[in-house]
Each structure stands twice: as C-alpha cells, then as structure tokens.
Amino acid sequence: MINTIIQGRMLVFVQQVNVLLYYVRKLPFVGEKIPYRLYGETDIKKAIGAIPVVFSVIGAFVGTFLYFLLMIKLPANWIQGFWEKEGIFVDQKAVMVYLFLIFSFLPGSFLVSNLTEGAKKDYVLLHVMRIPAVQYYRSKMVLKGVKDTICFLVPLLWFGFGAESALFVVSLFFTRYIGHAGILQHYRHSEKKGKKVFWKSLGKTFLMFGIILALGYGVAAAVPRLFFDRYVMAEVVVFLSFTLVGMFCFSKVWKYGGYTIFAKKMVSLKDFLEQDDAVKEARAADVQIQDKDISKEELRSRKYEEKEGYDYLNAIFFERHKRIVSRAVKSRIIIILAVGLIGAVALLFVGEQMKQKTFEAMTQMMPVMVFVMYLESTGGRICKAMFFNCDISLLKYGYYREADAILKNFKIRLRKLLMLDAVPAAIICGMILLWTLLCGEILAVWKVIPLMAGSLLLSAFFCLFHLFMYYITQPYTEEKTVKSPIFSVVNALVYFGCYLCLQIQTGSWLFTLGVLAVTIIFIPLSYFCVFRFAPKTFKIR
C-alpha cells in the first residue's frame, strides 16, 4: 500500500511541476531562462516536485484552519456575544463542538468522500498504470483520513481544546469510513454512478447544504439552553459512538471485494471526458445567450445608429444581452426587497426597545455592508458575459488589444456597470430609510447617511474592481475555464477580506471616509494599470 501511495504522489508531483513550469516560463525575464526540455526531465521534476508538495501541505493546513475559523470559531463567537447582550450566558466551546460535529462528521464524510472524485489521476493510475484497485482505494482512503486528522488537530489545539482533541480527530478518522461504506454499499446494489449517489441535481445539492447549515447555525442561534455549559461526558459518549460505528465500517470497507468493478464504473475515459465537457458548459451557461433571447426586431433595430465606434459596439452588446444582465440585477433586487420588507414587517410588531437596538445596529453596520455589497455586485458575471459573447471573437484582432481601444472600452463599460449596480444599491438605501422611519428615528436620519453613502461607494468600488481584474488578468479561455491563478487568488483574498469586515466594530462615518479614500485612489490607479498593462494581459488564453 505504501508503494501505491508513493506512485500516486509521484504522478501528482510530475503534473504539478508541469503546471509550475508553465507559469514560471510566463514570467518576464525569468521565464526565458527556463529551457523547454525541462518538461521531459522526469528525475528533475521529481526533485522539483517537493516545492508544490510543500505548498500543498501548507495549503491543506491553512485551508482547514480557515474552515474552522470561518465556519465554527467566528460563528460561535458571534452566537455567544449575541446572547450575552440579552443577559444569557452561552459556553462558546460547547457551540464549537456542536458545529464541528454537525458540519465535519456525517455530512463531511459523505460530501467530501474521495471515492467518488473520478479524477483524471484515478483513470491514469487505475487503467493506464494498472495499479490494483483494492490497493489504490485503500491507500487513497487512509491518506485522506490521516491528512484530515492532522489538519484538524491544529485548529482544535489552537482554539483551546486540550486532550479531547485526540478523541475528536480519531473519531473523525473512523467516521470518514461511514461515508465510504455507504457509497460502496450503494454500488453493491445499484448501477448508478458515484456522482449520483445522494443527489441527481444541483438544486438538491444546495438543498442538502441548506439543511446542514440550518441544523448547525439555526439550532445554535435559536436554542441557547443547549449550550449553557459543556456536557463533557455527553460529548465523550457521542464521539465514542461515532468511533465504534466507524471502526465497524472500517472493517467492512477494508474487506470489500468489489473494488475492481467499482473502479470500472466510477472511472472511465468516456465518463471523464463527458464530465469535463459538462463542467465547461456549466461554467458559461449562465452568461451565454440563446437564440430565443434575441428577437428579429432587436437585430434589425436602428436604435443606436447615432452612435459610432466602441460606443456603438457596447450599446449593441448590452441591448442584445439585456436579458442576461437584467436577470443578474433582478435577482439581487428581489432578494434585497424580500429581506427589507420582511424586516420592515417585523419592526411593526416589536417593542420600542427592540426598535432602538435595531437603529443603533444600523448606525454601526458599515463594515457589514462591505460583505453585502461584494455579494450584491453584478460586475463579475457581466464581465464573464462580455468575454463569452463579445471579446472572445474581437480579441483575435490586434487593433482591439491596443492601449487606446482598451481604455475606451474600459471607460464605456465602467459607466454601464455603475448604472446597473446603482439600482440595487439605491434600493438598499431606500430600505435603510424605511427601517429608520419604522424605528421612529426619522429625526436622527443623519446617523444612517454614512451607511447609505458607503453602500453607494462600495457598489462603485466593486464594479471597478471586477472590471479591473477582467482587463488585467483576463482569466477566461475558449474552453470555458478559468486559467489565471492570479485572478483566483486575488478574488479569494478579496472575499476573505470582505468576510473579515463582518468582525470590525467602528463608527460608520470613519469607515465611510476610509471607503471613499480607497475608491478615489483606486480609480486613477486602475486607469493607469489598464492603459499600461492590459495590452499585454487582455488576450485569449
């Protein structure tokens, strides 16, 4: 089994080094020094493979730590603080243990089982290199279990769990085999693919995640009496029960004799290629226009014949793709109105004390609006639509990649994005005014002016950010994939930064001035960077 693990890791090493070499060779000055023949030097690539392995290990630890922080620690901290304001003491560690159990055990065991990945690596090792299926799957499950055990041990110890951390991670290791056993049992009696074991559609997948989140956060936030204190003996009984059931499943999984048939059903070249094509189509499905979306009248329309150049091009684009654009805007408007009106109705029935607390919370909500307005922005989706329905064809011509042309298009598109996102932002401001009126604080409306101004500024900032990232990185390919690692990393960091703003507590005036300053600085900086660098980066990948 150890040899199987080593062979699998060596294959991953070589693939990762190929990717690393590809991007290093793209770097200015350094890339031209890297000879192309390195792609064929297997021994050298195995040695260099230590670099992505180190990053992979660090990434696993960091990813698990962030998961524990964002999904368990911070929500538990918020729940404790919320009930303390109401005079009710809640043990934060009890909440953390509950969330850890709900999110990471049975749901995690079934949803993250690596038996059903069907990755290209699996196909190569099982059907090309012909590694015995029983050895491959045993090693794969053990390696995943050990990795999860070690990675979860770090945040558990970091956040103050002592000796019980050992029980938690051992229980987690064996609980993973409950999920493995369930999947294998399904294959014993069914001809379905592993990807359809528990759900057949994306909607059902989201429903399952919704139920898990509601069971976790909903119960923890609504039933504080369950968390007045830590019931250590009860925790021990629960985790030992999971461990014993998991050990039983471990023995069944280890002795399972149908791995060869399982591998043939799970990993075939046809299924892999079909799945890859389906994923590519799904990535662009939400921004691709259909024939039914454009009428003959719209094609013959002379509505914009007074315009010329790139003004005409973009006017025609947004006119013909208005259904895609409007769907993005309308969905956000519906959500904003639903939340705003539900809150308004609730304010009609609460007491004066709750109204006062609500208004006070609104005056301190500016950091929260950073995350809200990031989610509200339609810039990312519209930029994606621009590429797949317009730029993918025009980028093949040199004139379209010239600095002047790029800057003209950038300005025109930025104006349009600002107008589109201003509508949801204005409705948010209207909901803020409505809540202020219902709280009986209309004379103190000046206190929420920073919140409304900040919402509009953030709307403009994120429009500019998405368009800037599109022109500077142009991450999309003709194969409908995202190829730019810089694009993915920067977006992940921005999302994480916006999420962390939920934890900031400061006055709205100060925060709004900060947002204004950042936006003012970012505008000329983005124009300069687009003019200077986009002619090289704005291209088909």
Elements, N to C (H/E): HHHHHHHHHHHHHHHHHHHHHH
User: What gross morphology would you assign?
Assistant: globular
Radius of gyration: 27 Å
User: Which structural class best describes the helix and strand composition?
Assistant: mainly alpha
User: How many independent structural domains?
Assistant: 2
The low-confidence parts are 192-202
Number of strands: 0
The helix content, as a percent range, equals: over 70%
Q: Which band does the percent of strand residues land in?
A: under 5%
- Described by its quaternary structure, the protein is single chain
- Give the helix tally: 22
> What's the average pLDDT?
80
Report the span from N to C terminus.
40 Å
Largest sheet: none
Keywords: Membrane, Transmembrane, Transmembrane helix
Verbal overview:
The protein has 541 residues and is mainly α. It folds into two domains: 49-267, no CATH class; 299-537, no CATH class. It is 75% helix and 0% strand. It has 22 helices and no strands. The longest helix is centred in the N-terminal third of the chain and has 36 residues, at 50-85. The protein is globular and about 70 Å long. The model is unreliable at 192-202 (pLDDT under 50).
